[in-house]
Amino acid sequence: MASNAAENDDGAGEAESLEKAKFQIFRYEDAKGLEAHPGALDVEPLPENLVPLQMKAIEAGLRDGQQIKYLVKMPGYSITHVWFKHDFPLPLHSHNSDCMYYIVAGTIRLGTETLGPRDSFFVPCDVPYTYRPGPEGVELLEFRHETSANLRHFSKAEKWWEKAVETCVENRESWIEAKMPPLNC
Known about the structure:
Blueprint: H1 2-8, H2 12-20, E1 32-33, E2 41-43, H3 51-59, E3 66-74, E4 77-84, E5 93-94, E6 99-110, E7 113-115, E8 120-123, E9 132-144, E10 149-153, H4 158-177
Parallel strand pairs: 2-10
Antiparallel strand pairs: 1-3, 3-4, 4-9, 5-10, 6-7, 6-8, 6-9
Helix pairs in contact: 1-2, 3-4
């Protein structure tokens, strides 16, 4: 009955898609990070005057404050697992695709709201946003109908990047030792 409904809508395309789709399982332990998916995240360059500060933040441990893995990458779908550790300095940025976020564990401060496990938020294409991970950090899933996205920075003040460097220096050791926030099950 469901296949008839798909065929009777305007969509032979949906019926074809259902016929081509295969049942698949995706395991976290098989997920690969950014380095295994060149082109999956196209980071637009910062203004030249900020590049040295960005490099200082990286040298000070910026990458130790995050873990990003692609759980699912298939035509028309992607799910990314993100773990930002406590106090990670996430710059104001946007992506060129809509994204639904689901918080698995930990908390974030998004504007005036605190969000935690089982909460979600939606960010439309090209809308700048940022959030601050809580004291245990945050583990979340990003759902997109694209397999790649860009990252456009809006944190273009030298003071913001200087503070990011300080935050990395202050937290690097604890980020290296950090454990994922406990699952609330």
